[in-house]
Design brief:
This protein is of the alpha+beta class. Helix 2 crosses helix 13, helix 10 packs across helix 13 and helix 11 crosses helix 12. It is built from 16 helices and seven strands. The chain has two domains: 225 residues, Endonuclease III, domain 1 (Orthogonal Bundle), CATH 1.10.340.30; 106 residues, Nucleoside Triphosphate Pyrophosphohydrolase. It is elongated and about 75 Å long. Strand 5 and strand 6 form a beta hairpin.
Length: 349
């Protein structure tokens, strides 16, 4: 039996306390001012793998460029990726764009209104669907992210590994058991849980002294807050050596291509070679160019979701203008509005 059922009189105040705290302490965020399904959806997709402080300017610019789902759906992927450039994890933008087109095609001017429909869209998982349905539609659906999992684990002093499905199921059950009935309160309750996890029940140095439900927190009573939640250690990501060539034509344009595979698919990149190229001149000559000069650009590390690139950059000036494959020579003015990933921006023209 869940522990909160053993203390019903106390736990009956949980929702009220959380809503009251949120009303006084919530941050002003652009999607909260107008929590339409589109705004909530875009914000939640952006919040995946990105800190709130980092995503805010991107969100504002993105909504300015694509103010409605229709604007997003009718745009080319290249324009969407360009607007997303600098955020990283570009598959998020590609899935958002694909899903917008599916919604326009299958639902017209409306949005899906069920979990099944939302989770059938590209890039929309259990959490995102729950967040949209509860915040934008006021439906009794749980949105369990890392902040909410941590809050739940401490409230219930639950030492279950939060990477396990069982932990998420327990947190979902807990949230739904204390969710208010009014749609307007549901919208607030979901955001309040996220906000408490972000501002109060933080991973380290939680503000238990400011927590509105500290008296109900079993971990606080047991002095186990610092050890919760329990999370299995993540395996280290593989490190891949990459050599980055900024290859300049005689007129100062740089060789680039739009990747159609693997990491950074759909993005414009310099000439990349996996591994460390020790003889850069030989490599460029084998590409069909004669070399005027080579300048080392240093090293940089870029971390993706499941791997790390250790990059070594070189600026190479050649005597020819010809290209090969899907490469083209582009000037800075030509590619500055294109979707160039942050991984390329360690090395400047």
């Amino acid at each position: 039996m869940r522990t909160w059922y053993n203390r019903p009189m106390k736990m009956s105040n949980l929702c009220t306390k959380i809503l009251h705290w949120y009303a006084k302490n919530k941050r002003t965020l652009p999607w909260r001012d107008d929590p339409t399904p589109y705004h909530v959806w875009v914000s939640e997709v952006m919040a995946q793998q990105t800190r709130l402080s980092q995503l805010l300017p991107f969100y504002v610019r993105f909504i300015e460029k694509f103010p409605t789902l229709y604007d997003l759906a009718k745009s080319e992927e290249s324009a969407v990726l360009a607007a997303w450039a600098g955020m990283g994890y570009y598959r998020r933008a590609q899935n958002l764009h694909r899903a917008a087109r599916e919604i326009r095609e299958n639902y017209g001017a409306n949005f899906p209104t069920t979990r099944r429909e939302w989770e059938a869209l590209p890039g929309v998982g259990t959490y995102t669907a729950g967040a949209i349905l509860s915040i934008a539609f006021g439906q009794k659906e749980a949105a369990v992210d890392g902040n909410v999992l941590r809050l739940y684990a401490r409230l219930e002093n639950d030492s279950t590994d939060i990477t396990l499905t069982a932990a998420k199921n327990r947190a979902t059950e807990f949230i739904l058991a204390h969710m208010p009935d009014k749609p307007s309160d549901i919208r607030v309750y979901t955001q309040a849980l996220m906000e408490m996890g972000s501002l109060i029940c933080t991973p380290s140095n939680p503000r238990c002294d400011l927590c509105p439900v500290s008296s109900l927190c079993l971990a606080n009573q047991a002095k186990t807050v610092a050890s919760l939640p329990v999370k299995a250690k993540k395996k280290p990501s593989p490190v891949v050596d990459m050599t980055v060539f900024l290859l300049f034509s005689p007129c100062g344009k740089v060789l680039m291509r739009r990747r159609n595979e693997g990491l950074l698919q759909g993005m414009w990149v310099y000439h990349l070679v996996e591994g460390k190229i020790l003889d850069t001149v030989k490599h460029v000559v084998e590409m069909g160019y004669s070399v005027r000069s080579v300048t080392p650009l240093g090293e940089a590390r870029h971390t993706f979701t499941h791997r790390v690139w250790d990059m070594t950059g070189f600026a190479v000036h050649v005597n020819e203008n010809h290209t090969f494959g899907d490469y083209v020579f582009l000037s800075p003015d030509e590619w500055k509005e294109m979707a160039v990933p942050a991984a390329m921006k360690y090395f400047h023209l």
